[in-house]
Amino acid sequence: MKVVFHVDELGKLSEARHNIQNLLAADKNAAITLVVNGEAIQGYLLPAQLEFMKDCPTVSYLACNNAMKAHHIKKEDLAKEIEVVPAGVMALVRLQHEGYAYIKP
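Predicted structure:
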């Protein structure tokens, strides 16, 4: 199973974390990607998100460079587990084209 979670609202990041944990509990082999853009990009700096990434190392984490620029976040500010992509929407299109189910909490 391949699933991409898309979060663009900071307040929805916690819900996405819970959804991802529930999915992993049901299918520990699920391929999961979390794409964060918009104001939610700030969530990649929060302690709760950093702890989540340690607890869920099999999840792929993508950050939108456009959102980072808009919120004055540099690649060096992010955890090493996070891959910066030029545009979050393009990553979403690519992943869905590759067969990922799209979930937006």
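Summary: The chain has a mean pLDDT of 97.
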